[in-house]
């Protein structure tokens, strides 16, 4: 296995560039850290172009051999690549999932309007995966699902279902099913809504909620009652409750 001992190595510098969304969009590649995320990418049939590992003997041979190229790095190089305080010692450059043909037949969809917190986005992706939703549509202004913090929060679910960036209004106009949006006004208690075989659920920005213009395109507006003194629920928690309610 070829060794890389300098952070100035061209392959390391290129991999490090993938921390920026602009570079991920340009190349169609992402940088992933940790055995769990890499393993989930492999299980999802994604191409592992490069693997950078500190101690190859610590990891399963099939994990290492799944990559087209393998490189042994030292801890200093790992610190440069890592997005955490304590590097996990294994990194991969992976091709993004191809989701271009998976949106048309979707029956149960999560629509995200400018969800910006990586932890919230990762949790919602994980919940959508757990509930076996078909698709996530994200509006411009949302966090990138392939940034490090979202990848970690999703626990690899980002590889399990198609996630596309699109104009939500345009998607809703062509969606043949009820669309539910979260709102405080002119909304019904979510408990009064029945489960649906086909639906889209629209969740809004952490601070501003769903864009009022988008709410005009919803079939029904839902609210979750506050029985205690809390003013509202975190969008990831509220979204998770509503996803499972609509799933039934």
TrEMBL record:
Occurrences of domain RNA 2-O ribose methyltransferase substrate binding (ranges): 31-100
SMART domains: SpoU_sub_bind (SM00967)
Superkingdom of source: Bacteria
Pfam families reported in the protein's UniProt record: MRM3-like_sub_bind, SpoU_methylase
PANTHER family: RRNA METHYLTRANSFERASE 3, RRNA METHYLTRANSFERASE 3, MITOCHONDRIAL
Keyword Transferase: yes
GO MF annotations in UniProt: RNA binding; RNA methyltransferase activity
UniProt GO cellular component terms: cytoplasm
CDD domains per record: SpoU-like_rRNA-MTase
Similarity section: Belongs to the class IV-like SAM-binding methyltransferase superfamily. RNA methyltransferase TrmH family.
Protein name: RNA methyltransferase
One GO BP annotation of this record: methylation
Keyword Transferase: yes
Species for this entry: Staphylococcus piscifermentans
Keywords: Methyltransferase, Transferase
């Amino acid at each position: 296995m070829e060794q890389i001992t300098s952070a100035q190595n061209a392959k390391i510098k290129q991999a490090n560039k993938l921390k920026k969304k602009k570079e991920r969009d340009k190349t169609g590649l992402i940088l992933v850290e940790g055995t769990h995320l890499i393993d989930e990418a492999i299980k999802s049939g994604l191409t592992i172009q490069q693997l950078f590992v500190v101690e190859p003997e610590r990891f399963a041979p099939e994990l290492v051999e799944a990559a087209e190229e393998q490189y042994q790095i030292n801890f200093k190089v790992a610190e440069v690549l890592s997005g955490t305080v304590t590097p996990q010692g294994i990194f991969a450059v992976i091709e993004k999932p191809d989701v271009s043909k998976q949106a048309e037949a979707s029956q149960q969809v999560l629509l995200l309007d400018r969800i910006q917190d990586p932890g919230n986005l990762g949790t919602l992706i994980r919940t959508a995966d757990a509930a076996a939703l078909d698709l996530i549509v994200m509006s411009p202004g949302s966090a990138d699902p392939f940034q490090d913090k979202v990848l970690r929060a999703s626990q690899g679910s980002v590889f399990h279902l198609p996630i596309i960036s699109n104009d939500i209004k345009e998607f809703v106009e062509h969606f043949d099913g009820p669309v539910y949006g979260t709102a405080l006004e002119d909304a019904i208690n979510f408990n009064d809504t029945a489960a649906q075989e086909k639906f889209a659920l629209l969740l809004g920005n952490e601070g501003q909620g769903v864009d009022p213009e988008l709410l005009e395109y919803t079939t029904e507006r839902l609210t979750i009652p506050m029985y205690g003194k809390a003013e509202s629920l975190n969008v990831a928690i509220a979204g998770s409750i509503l996803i499972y309610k609509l799933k039934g």
